[in-house]
Write a structure and sequence with these properties.
14 helices; mainly alpha
Length: about 260
């Protein structure tokens, strides 16, 4: 029973994963295919410069007409992280608290397997659940070379990894809240609220002086907030995201071991 729970949870979600992957493939292809129509439109950059706050909220940090700027504004700074967070937080909230509310977690803990191992297999599933969506998006972007998009493959791999780690961090937070409260709704609500606040801090930091120091407390900064598509994902940034995810998971294990399962 080393990986059965991981495989079971992923198998139960295969249809939604296929649906999300197909959806992100279509959306990314539209973004890629539209780029040639806008790459020489100087008005886009003028609009972004004259509406700095609005541009920051959508993650526009550099020229909208460059390949990386176009992809950041339409995909990697907002939409793709949102989809990966939906998957991660949704799974993190349901894998412990949700199954407790459904009455299936009680059956699971009655089996000859420790709660720590159950949590470990749930965390493994959390680590895998966002991969199809992120990989599909990256593959479509690579195909975008035929539409005049030029992106460094190493940087693309880096920002893809950053987005995945971001989803794991907030999914682990949802596991922790679920393990502490036994409530799926509370896990969803708190994790989503923290993610939204983190996004706003990272987005507004470049234009609001008093928020700028707080960006280092936002996981978004380490995943996508330093123009990783143009500069690559720093090893230290990836290490921060991994450390946060592991710390939250360790706390979730402790909470789960004390959870009064129904």
């Amino acid at each position: 029973m080393l990986t059965e729970l991981t495989r079971l949870d992923l198998r139960l979600r295969r249809r939604s994963l296929i649906g999300y992957s197909l959806g992100i493939a279509v959306y990314t292809f539209v973004i890629v295919a539209l780029y040639p129509a806008f790459k020489n439109d100087a008005g886009l950059d003028d609009f972004a410069q004259s509406n700095a706050t609005m541009a920051a909220l959508f993650g526009v940090g550099d020229s909208l007409t460059s390949s990386s700027g176009w992809l950041n504004a339409n995909l990697y700074a907002n939409f793709l992280p949102l989809v990966v967070l939906l998957l991660g937080i949704g799974y993190g909230a349901s894998c412990l608290a949700g199954q407790d509310e459904d009455g299936t977690l009680g059956v699971m803990v009655a089996m000859p397997i420790s709660r720590r191992r159950i949590a470990g297999q749930k965390f493994a599933a959390l680590g895998l659940i966002g991969i199809p969506v992120a990989i599909v998006a990256a593959l479509v972007v690579i195909l975008g070379r035929g539409f005049e998009l030029t992106v460094d493959l190493g940087n693309l791999a880096g920002v893809t990894l950053g987005v995945l780690l971001l989803g794991i961090c907030f999914g682990a937070l949802a596991m922790l809240v679920g393990g502490l409260s036994g409530s799926r709704g509370l896990a969803l609500g708190i994790s989503s609220a923290v993610a939204a606040a983190s996004y706003l801090i990272n987005s507004l930091a470049p234009i609001v002086d008093w928020i700028r120091p707080a960006r280092y407390a936002s996981p978004f900064y380490y995943a996508i907030g330093d123009n990783q598509l143009e500069n690559g994902l720093r090893l230290s940034y990836a290490a921060v995201l991994v450390a946060v995810a592991l710390a939250l998971f360790a706390a979730a294990v402790l909470a789960f071991e004390r959870l009064d399962v129904h």
